[in-house]
Amino acid sequence: MRLPPPCGEGSRVGVGLSIERARQLRKRMGAPEARLWNALRALPDVHFRRQVPLGKYYADFACHAHRLVIEVDGDTHGSESAFAHDATRDAFIDSQGYRIMRVSNRDVMRNLEGVMTKVILALELPPPSLPPHKGEGSLSSARSEHSDD
Fold it and tell me: Which top-rank group of organisms is this from (predicted)?
């Protein structure tokens, strides 16, 4: 069986499935995610999206302009297997040039003001630089290779 290409590559098949899955996730937001979503939407001059496909993962919230992903973690994120999955996921998202901010369900429900203070501070940081594309070297190394010509 041939799998569809990752989101954004090749045919639109993979993209359609990814978008449909994101729609399903948005309809099933838990109370902490819904609460944080309402607070994020109230921020002036900042645009967050929810359940954003990034490769094979879905970010709870992402602000593309600031390259910031916010993940709301529930009780299931405390196990060793969940920690390993989160580490793999975070490494991928980081490799795409995003910062990851993790907040707990508990903090969102009990200390939304504190969570939003951290979000605002993260938005004030300059966005991380995008990683270089695979196979691209620096211009200085390319010049030094051809300097003997």
Answer: Bacteria
